[in-house]
């Protein structure tokens, strides 16, 4: 069955529209919603100085990227939004991504905005909490992986730290292709 958007549908889709954005990736290039249109993407919220969930989340996202490649899935992007833009410069994000040997041709680590901007963007687009308490190093943030269709509409989210449903995510990506 096809949805009104012309792509395969996900049962019980969230249908949260991602608001327009243009941020800076790990290579210092501008990447925005328009660059992702026509591609299915999986996103999350992380930061490089995180001492808890961001390392396993990034490792899990890397596993998803590898699985998608092994399945021959093309036209897929992975997008990690930094929730600590003051510390997460493009260079810091590149160094962080290098630790996981990510394929940057299909993965953007984004920064280049104010703290308040990412907090509002996460809430408005993803219905996700991002909050940096005053005088704290760690940022409070959601730990989900979000599946976004080719039109920039969030279809579903999944656990991103433990118990990641890899096969389900891969199947859902294929449905949206």
TrEMBL record:
The entry assigns this protein to a family as follows:
Belongs to the SCO1/2 family.
The record's listing under CDD domains reads: SCO (cd02968)
Gene3D superfamilies referenced in this protein's UniProt entry, alphabetically: Glutaredoxin (3.40.30.10)
The species this protein belongs to is: Cytobacillus gottheilii
Q: What is this protein called?
A: SCO family protein
The protein's UniProt keywords, in alphabetical order, are: Copper
Q: Specify the domain of life of the species encoding this protein.
A: Bacteria
| Pfam families xref list | SCO1-SenC
Q: Which SUPFAM superfamilies match?
A: Thioredoxin-like
Keyword Nucleotide-binding attributed: no
Q: Which residues form the Thioredoxin domain?
A: 12-177
State if Secreted is listed as a keyword: no
């Amino acid at each position: 069955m096809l949805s009104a958007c012309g792509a395969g549908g996900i049962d019980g889709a969230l249908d949260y529209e991602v608001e327009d954005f243009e941020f800076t990736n790990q290579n210092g290039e501008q990447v925005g919603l328009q660059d992702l249109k026509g591609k299915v993407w999986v996103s999350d919220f992380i930061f490089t100085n995180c001492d808890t969930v961001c390392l396993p989340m990034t490792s899990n996202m890397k596993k998803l990227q590898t699985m998608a490649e092994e399945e021959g899935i093309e036209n897929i992007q992975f997008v990690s939004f930094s929730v600590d833009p003051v510390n997460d410069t493009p260079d810091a994000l590149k160094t962080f991504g290098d630790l996981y040997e990510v394929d940057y041709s299909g993965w953007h680590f984004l920064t280049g905005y104010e703290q308040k901007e990412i907090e509002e963007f996460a809430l408005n687009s993803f219905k996700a909490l991002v909050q940096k308490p005053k005088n704290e190093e760690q940022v409070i943030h959601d730990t989900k992986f979000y599946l976004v269709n080719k039109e920039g509409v969030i279809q579903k989210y999944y656990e991103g730290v433990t118990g990641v449903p890899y096969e389900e995510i891969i199947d859902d990506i294929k449905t949206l292709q």
